[in-house]
From TrEMBL:
<dbReference type="InterPro" id="IPR018289">
    <property type="entry name" value="MULE_transposase_dom"/>
</dbReference>
<dbReference type="GO" id="GO:0008270">
    <property type="term" value="F:zinc ion binding"/>
</dbReference>
<dbReference type="Pfam" id="PF04434">
    <property type="entry name" value="SWIM"/>
</dbReference>
<dbReference type="InterPro" id="IPR006564">
    <property type="entry name" value="Znf_PMZ"/>
</dbReference>
<dbReference type="Pfam" id="PF10551">
    <property type="entry name" value="MULE"/>
</dbReference>
<feature type="domain" description="SWIM-type">
    <location>
        <begin position="283"/>
        <end position="315"/>
    </location>
</feature>
<keyword id="KW-0862">Zinc</keyword>
<protein>
    <recommendedName>
        <fullName>SWIM-type domain-containing protein</fullName>
    </recommendedName>
</protein>
<keyword id="KW-0479">Metal-binding</keyword>
<dbReference type="InterPro" id="IPR007527">
    <property type="entry name" value="Znf_SWIM"/>
</dbReference>
<keyword id="KW-0863">Zinc-finger</keyword>
């Protein structure tokens, strides 16, 4: 039994009381997310690596210093419709709430695409730009896809798409068949995702729990809890090292924008409205509304280079224009709450009715279980080709040297 009454754990079984899904989340994480974090949730699944089959589904948020913030987890037998539907239902009921509007970022797994509109109708579901670009083999096309997803300017988006069409009309057609542009292109999405266009944060988390993924379910839960507690402790200590009223990551963004703002020219149109010409475009900045026509100011919640030029011209404090998510006080509040150790097993209540849960039917595959990620087809061939090429080059180079020596004599 957890001492935190807001902590939730639930086990679902299938036919014959066999294990199907175990969902859990921590009360501290839920409270912090609703109060201090940006409304963006990143989800993904990763396979268990040991003798126990299954998949860990994770929901991750991002704190004001661009750190991973674990929200909720589930261990399921397989990434299928029922598993993701169960995870989304628990996420809605115990973490984000029914009426909460947020950005849900994921890859384009069919079960996710089908389950989100059905269970989380109030969220805005968007696709990871990295996974989308991975469908194309051409490096230039990959780059243009990621730039198209990231840019906030529709004209730039059109230019990138034109570049893709010139390189490959089939790639352009395939990209347009993905669905509505607001599903993956930030320039056509009204709701801000704060510059988070990939699932890198949840991918980083999956790498951090490689050791946990080798264990049984009970051990996984215990080790992930210890991992989360270490995160809280380390980030709480980091907050004491901040030298400015905002987080380190936000400070880096402002320093960069200040440097670029020095190259901008500006003209005041009214008390709070400025016309600013930067390196790429001319924009209109409204300091009262905290907006810029480049959309970076209102999307990120951090003054862009155009807004920074106007702020510096009038002598305002740029930190006053930063969203509350990035403030030092908010970051300290995020990791202020202390974790309480779980009571020992000998103190658990015994009067509760015990559930009889059978393990899932194990499906063993032929051969030794794989623990390393499979290399792609091209990567596997490249090693073979390299050996063959090295052999051929060495053989014929020796032959050439031998013939040259004969000719010279």
């Amino acid at each position: 039994m957890s001492v935190d009454l807001d902590t939730v754990s639930d086990i679902l079984t299938g036919l014959g009381d066999r294990f199907e899904c175990f969902f859990w989340t921590y009360g501290i994480s839920v409270r912090v997310y609703k109060k201090n974090l940006r409304p963006v949730v990143i989800i993904d699944g990763t396979f268990l690596k040991g003798r126990y089959p299954g998949t860990i589904l994770s929901a991750i948020a991002v704190d004001g210093n661009n750190h991973v913030f674990p929200l909720a987890f589930a261990v399921v037998m397989k990434e299928k419709n029922d598993s993701w539907d169960c995870f989304f239902t628990k996420l809605r009921d115990h973490v984000v709430g029914v009426d909460h509007e947020f950005i849900l970022l994921s890859n384009r797994h069919k079960s996710i695409i089908q389950g989100v509109p059905k269970i989380l109708p109030n969220d805005v579901h968007m696709y990871c730009s990295y996974h989308m670009s991975g469908k194309f083999g051409h490096k230039k096309i990959k780059f243009l896809v990621q730039e198209s997803a990231k840019t906030l300017n529709q004209q730039e988006f059109g230019g990138n798409m034109l570049g893709i069409w010139l390189l490959s009309s089939k790639a352009h057609e395939k990209l347009m068949d993905v669905g509505p542009l607001e599903k993956w292109a930030s320039a056509f999405q009204d709701k801000s995702r704060f510059g988070i266009v990939t699932t890198n944060h949840v991918e980083s988390w999956n790498k951090m729990i490689i050791g946990e993924r080798m264990m049984s379910v009970t051990t996984i839960v215990s080790m992930i809890r210890d991992n989360v507690i270490r995160h809280y402790r380390d980030y709480r200590n980091d907050s004491l090292k901040f030298n400015s009223p905002i987080t380190t990551w936000c400070q880096e963004q402002i320093v960069h924008n200040v440097a670029v703002a020095r190259k901008c020219t500006l003209e005041r149109a009214s008390t709070s409205i400025w016309s600013v010409t930067g390196l790429k475009r001319s924009c209109v900045v409204d300091l009262n509304k905290r907006t810029c026509t480049c959309k970076w100011f209102q999307t990120m919640g951090i003054p862009c280079e155009h807004a920074m030029a106007a702020i510096k011209e009038v002598g305002f404090d740029p930190y006053k224009f930063v969203y509350v998510y990035y403030l030092k006080e908010t970051y300290i509040e995020t990791y202020r709450e202390e974790w309480t150790p779980t009571r020992g097993k000998e103190e658990w209540p015994t009067e509760r009715q015990r559930r009889r849960i059978l393990p899932p039917l194990k499906i063993s595959k032929a051969g030794r279980p794989k623990t390393a990620r499979k290399r792609g087809f091209v990567a596997r061939l490249s090693a073979v080709h390299f050996s063959v090429i090295r052999y051929v080059v060495t053989k014929y180079r020796l032959k050439y040297v031998f013939l040259s020596s004969i000719i010279q004599t």
